Write a sequence for this structure.
């Protein structure tokens, strides 16, 4: 930020007001004729409330300025390179936004009869088929709202299936490289979690799985490529070891962006898979949702999928509820339809060849960054990487500079940091996922920034340790926020 | 259409830097048995124009609320959305950012979520709110699971109103099926369409974990929560309210004022398009003393190194990425963009606008109700007070639906799919989007 006069500086550095701290009593950004019948004639007074104390009172322009100003305090894919590992921050095409807003998709009601929703049901049916082809699985439910709900649904399917077989089992094996959602979903599904360690090459051994397997293990949950960006090359033997003792294999498809046209989960012995459409299939992350987490299964689990299911009868699409073995519903209506529309548009835009190319370029970009940075940052595992590469702060740590400092310093260079301190098995991890939609020039400038930070760590460590220097706020006191949580505005506290 | 920008020359340069001859070498460590079968057999990609046409063709096969007269509610509501809402959420600074893990460059999203939490507290009368969950139904299931974390193991019986949204009841039972210790009992509704408070209080005892009830309920009836709350309080059970039409809370006494412990619901009605029922978001609010048991994201206020106000994700030790199998929930999304839409919507309408909109809904719905009863001979389903939805009873349901359909009217949701005892009943919703002329046509179609 350039030098400003003292008066200016105060205005510029002041945090924006809260929406509750602006406006004037009686103002509204909404105009509608008053009701013809007063509410108290229709509803008993004892059931009515007073006005909502503290609610905003602003005009439309004030509201827009407020939120536009807030938007300028965000990093985003369309503003900055966003190499956040495990999140697949690829470009979100505009055509998908346009079509999702067509009235024929946005203004339709889920409780209208199937007659009135044939286009929507056709789209969902077709999307299921596309996901079957990409994943090599056999059936799909689009109902789960997000990856974590897809996981929970997948585990419920396993539980229902094994219970039906008269062999309900109690445990789930999860590798130490797994996303935190895997153990959390297992617990939520009533399972105990057994953690197994990955080997020195960062992958799991079939022998380790075989050793952990017993007649009480319902499933192994595995991510492939795993969170170290490495392909679980023993996956076929691992699946065999699980199946041999009556367990099922659950694949976390968070990293499918590495696999399209490379390897299909359905061929790896996987029984259940969830997909994150907001990662691989380019629907916008929205600052933390909405996403969609469809679950895909093999034939033996079909009857357990959530209801309703979309069925094609002749040329007509129907929603059927009558599947007695189904785990039931995991959410209201038909899932995050608007997200599914975007993913469908993306898949037909790219087609089979385009999807394969997306994965190829994602791998090329990750391997390029890996090669360019490996002399300056310690690589976590010296193995060929897939769509993301993991470094550690081992070299910089000796200079007193940590992963957090490197991440914060990247903000000054105008880049969003990689995912940091994850996976937990790597001390001081920096997990870089460039995705396929970035140009070589962008990758090179990111690499230059990382190399510059490595130099700064040696020559001017304090510059890195006190970063960021150019963001709207400096490092925030997270401990204070957690110690005495302030989770809402109050008129007395904030004036 | 593809979005991969590398030219052949770029690829060449990159491969040389890596020390490889071809892209295929990047896969040489993948077992051949997998690689050989990996081809994706799908048609070629389409041009942007072709995609637009294909999507328009699919969209044209659906009946929209503009082409038809919908009197459909039942958890998803057709309300007016000011243009400013989509203008804000279309800003790619909001739509293409990730969960705000790096607070220095996410203050926009974080402050908006903090404002949302405040708005939900104000609207629901509760003390704390999280930043949003998937939808109203999973919010209801999460609320029951939260009650299970708070209540002692001796309390594992849930009393669930039969007048709670049937899909929500289904989701709650899906979630609870995996936890062997919780039992759910359904409490019937009475002739007014409200939960039978007398039966409910009689069934409360020292094993009761919580009561979960729709407010307004699935039949649109505004429940009198006073006797239910008193019963819960006496028995030591928690009261959970579930609101599928939160616009009602601008007018009716909010859950917090009744003494609810946890208040959840579906936020779609506040500025999010119907979009076949998703995506929108679930809201989740509770009393402050339970905050460490709340699922999902929470945004808190703090200061930066120079003492400036700022916002961060907080109390993360509840969450899966820290606590793994001991987390309060596995959820890690807050449906942020939909939550942002609601934040803009509530900010724009504001104190007077939101109330005005609620009053217009009450007026339109009651006018339609009065005219239908007086002019068509159709019967009222229930007698309880309602907001913008009500139940009608007809012994010629199929004839009625057929007459309406020929006039491009969907008069409501037939209740027979969920309630055999209400096989001749129709749930009708009237909002500000239903013009008087539409109501007039509805009356004529139903009158036959």
């Amino acid at each position: 930020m350039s030098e400003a006069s003292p008066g200016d500086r105060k205005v510029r550095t002041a945090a924006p007001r809260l929406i509750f701290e602006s406006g004037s009593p009686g103002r509204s950004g909404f105009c509608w004729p008053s009701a013809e019948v007063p509410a108290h004639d229709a509803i008993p007074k004892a059931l009515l409330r007073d006005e909502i104390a503290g609610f905003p009172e602003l005009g439309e322009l004030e509201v827009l300025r407020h939120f536009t100003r807030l938007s300028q305090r965000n990093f985003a894919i369309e503003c900055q390179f966003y190499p956040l590992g495990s999140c697949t921050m690829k470009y979100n095409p505009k055509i998908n936004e346009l079509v999702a807003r067509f009235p024929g998709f946005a203004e339709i009601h889920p409780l209208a009869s199937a007659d009135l929703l044939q286009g929507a049901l056709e789209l969902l049916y077709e999307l299921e088929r596309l996901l079957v082809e990409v994943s090599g699985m056999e059936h799909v439910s689009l109902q789960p709202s997000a990856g974590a709900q897809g996981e929970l649904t997948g585990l419920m399917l396993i539980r229902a299936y094994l219970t039906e077989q008269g062999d309900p089992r109690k445990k789930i094996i999860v590798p130490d490289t797994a996303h935190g959602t895997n153990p959390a979903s297992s617990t939520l599904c009533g399972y105990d979690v057994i953690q197994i360690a990955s080997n020195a090459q960062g992958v799991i051994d079939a022998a380790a799985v075989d050793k952990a397997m017993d007649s009480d293990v319902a499933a192994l949950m595995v991510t492939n490529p795993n969170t170290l960006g490495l392909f679980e090359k023993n996956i076929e033997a691992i699946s065999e070891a699980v199946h041999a003792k009556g367990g099922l294999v659950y694949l976390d498809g968070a990293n499918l962006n590495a696999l399209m046209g490379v390897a299909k989960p359905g061929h790896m012995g996987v029984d259940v898979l969830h997909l994150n459409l907001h990662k691989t299939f380019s629907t916008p992350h929205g600052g933390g949702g909405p996403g969609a987490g469809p679950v895909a299964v093999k034939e033996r689990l079909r009857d357990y999928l959530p209801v309703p299911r979309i069925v094609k009868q002749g040329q007509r699409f129907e929603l059927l509820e009558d599947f007695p073995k189904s785990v039931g519903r995991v959410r209201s209506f038909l899932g995050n339809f608007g997200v599914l529309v975007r993913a469908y548009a993306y898949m037909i835009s790219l087609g089979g060849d385009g999807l394969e190319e997306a994965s190829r370029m994602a791998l090329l970009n990750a391997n390029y960054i890996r090669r360019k940075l490996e002399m300056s940052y310690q690589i976590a595992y010296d193995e060929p990487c897939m769509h993301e590469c993991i470094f550690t702060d081992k070299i910089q740590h000796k200079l007193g500079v940590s992963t957090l400092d490197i991440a914060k310093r990247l903000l000054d260079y105008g880049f969003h940091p990689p995912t940091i301190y994850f996976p937990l098995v790597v001390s001081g991890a920096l997990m870089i996922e460039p995705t396929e939609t970035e140009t070589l020039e962008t990758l090179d400038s990111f690499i230059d920034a990382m190399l510059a930070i490595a130099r700064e760590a040696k020559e001017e460590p304090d510059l890195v340790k006190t970063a960021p220097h150019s963001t709207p706020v400096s490092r925030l006191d997270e401990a204070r926020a957690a110690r005495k949580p302030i989770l809402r505005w109050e008129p007395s506290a904030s004036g | 259409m593809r979005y991969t920008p590398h030219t052949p020359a770029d690829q060449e340069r990159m491969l040389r830097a890596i020390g490889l001859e071809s892209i295929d070498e990047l896969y040489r460590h993948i077992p051949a048995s997998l690689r050989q079968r990996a081809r994706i057999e799908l048609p070629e990609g389409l041009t942007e124009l072709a995609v637009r046409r294909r999507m328009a063709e699919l969209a044209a096969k659906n009946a929209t609320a503009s082409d038809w007269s919908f009197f459909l509610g039942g958890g998803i509501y057709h309300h007016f959305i000011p243009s400013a809402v989509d203008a804000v959420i279309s800003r790619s600074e909001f739509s293409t950012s990730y969960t705000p893990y790096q607070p220095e460059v996410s203050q926009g999203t974080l402050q908006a979520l903090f404002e949302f939490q405040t708005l939900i507290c104000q609207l629901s009368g509760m003390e704390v709110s999280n930043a949003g969950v998937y939808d109203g139904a999973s919010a209801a299931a999460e609320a029951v699971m939260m009650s299970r974390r708070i209540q002692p193991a001796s309390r594992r019986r849930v009393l669930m109103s039969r007048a709670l949204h049937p899909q929500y009841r289904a989701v709650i039972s899906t979630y609870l099926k995996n936890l062997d210790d919780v039992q759910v009992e359904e409490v019937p509704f009475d002739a007014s369409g409200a939960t039978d408070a007398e039966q409910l209080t009689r069934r409360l005892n020292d094993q009761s974990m919580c009561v979960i009830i729709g407010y307004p309920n699935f039949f649109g009836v505004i429940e009198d929560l006073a006797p239910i709350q008193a019963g819960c309080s006496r028995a030591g059970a928690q009261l959970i309210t579930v609101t599928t039409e939160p616009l009602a809370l601008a007018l009716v006494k909010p859950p917090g004022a009744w003494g609810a412990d946890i208040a959840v619901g579906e936020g779609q009605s506040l500025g999010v398009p119907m979009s076949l029922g998703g995506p929108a978001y679930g809201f989740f609010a509770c009393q402050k003393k339970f905050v460490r048991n709340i699922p999902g994201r929470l945004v808190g206020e703090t200061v930066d190194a120079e003492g400036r106000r700022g916002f961060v994700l907080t109390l993360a030790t509840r969450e899966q990425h820290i606590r793994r199998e001991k987390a309060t929930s596995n959820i890690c999304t807050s449906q942020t963009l939909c939550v942002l839409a609601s934040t803009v919507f509530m900010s724009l309408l504001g104190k007077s606008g939101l109330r005005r909109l609620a009053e217009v809904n009450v007026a339109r719905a009651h006018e339609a109700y009065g005219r239908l009863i007086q002019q068509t001979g159709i019967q009222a389903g229930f007698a309880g007070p309602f907001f913008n939805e009500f139940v009608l009873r007809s012994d010629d349901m199929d004839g009625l639906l057929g007459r309406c359909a020929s006039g491009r009217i969907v008069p409501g949701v037939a209740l027979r799919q969920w309630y055999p005892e209400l096989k001749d009943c129709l749930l009708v919703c009237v909002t500000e989007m239903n013009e008087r002329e539409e109501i007039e046509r509805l009356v004529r179609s139903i009158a036959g």
Summary: Residues 311 and 393 of chain B are 52 Å apart (CA to CA).
